[in-house]
Every structure is written in C-alpha cells, then in structure tokens.
Design goal:
mainly alpha
C-alpha cells in the first residue's frame, strides 16, 4: 500500500516532468517558428524597400539627366547669344558709326548710338543668361537634395 502511494506519486511526478518538458519543447518549437516567420517577413520588407530604393534612384537619375540636359541646352544657347553679341560689337567697331546715317526719322539720337546701345544691351543679356543659368543649376541641385532628403 505504501508502495502504491509512492509509485503513484512517482508516476505523477514523472508525468509532470514529462509534461513540462514536452510543453517546453513545443513552446520552443513555436517560438522558433514565430522567429522564422518574423525573419521571413523582415526579409520580404527589406527586399521591397530595396526595390523601392532602386526605383527612386532610377527616377532621380533620370531627373538629374534631364536637368543636366536642360542645363547643357541653356548653356549652349547662352554661348550662342554671347557669340552673337560679340559679333555685333565687332561689326559696330568696324563700322565705327561712320557708315551709318547721322540722323534718322526718329528723334533722340543717331543710328550709331542706338546700335551701340543695342549691342550693349545684348552683351548685358548674355551676362544675365549666364547668371540665370548658374542660378537655375544651383536651384535644381538644392531642389533635388531636398526632395531626396524628404524621401
């Protein structure tokens, strides 16, 4: 009888130990499964973020290329205008104003003076175009930096 009580108690303790061990093992397996699931989800999110980053980089590169192309075109136009202004100045210097009529039907001065003023204004226009081109370039770079920073 005493032996039966001890045997029953031993079996009960053994059952508790086995149950605890089995529960802990099952808990560990569930924890590993959850960790693996979280790891896979994190990897998927990371993959999506990398793809989004690549898309944004490609978009930014395309925008930069477009801006550089526009800047190059503006620079080309600026050089062309500057060359035209230089040619007009040279023509004015060569003419010296003597080949032009001394007066015109419009009051306010001679043709040579007006032509000189026109050449001067063209020169100033070329300088302003160069300055405007530089300003546009700085603004575009800052705008892109701000846009990229906000992403």
């Amino acid at each position: 009888m005493i032996f039966d009580k001890w045997l029953t108690a031993g079996v009960g303790v053994l059952a508790c130990i086995v149950g605890f061990t089995a529960g802990q093992t099952l808990g560990d397996l569930r924890l590993k499964e959850e960790r693996n699931a979280h790891l896979k989800a994190m990897q998927e999110v990371q993959k999506q973020n990398e793809e989004e980053l690549r898309r944004r980089e490609d978009s930014a590169k395309a925008a930069v290329d477009s801006l550089l192309s526009q800047l190059s075109d503006a620079d080309h136009r600026n050089r062309s205008l500057a060359q035209s202004a230089a040619r007009l100045r040279e023509q004015l210097k060569l003419a010296g104003g003597s080949a032009m009529p001394a007066s015109s039907g419009i009051a306010g001065g001679t043709c040579g003076e007006r032509l000189a003023r026109c050449a001067e204004l063209l020169g100033e226009g070329g300088e302003l175009l160069a300055e405007g081109s530089g300003i546009c370039e700085r603004i575009a770079v800052r705008k892109d930096a701000i846009r990229d920073y906000r992403r």
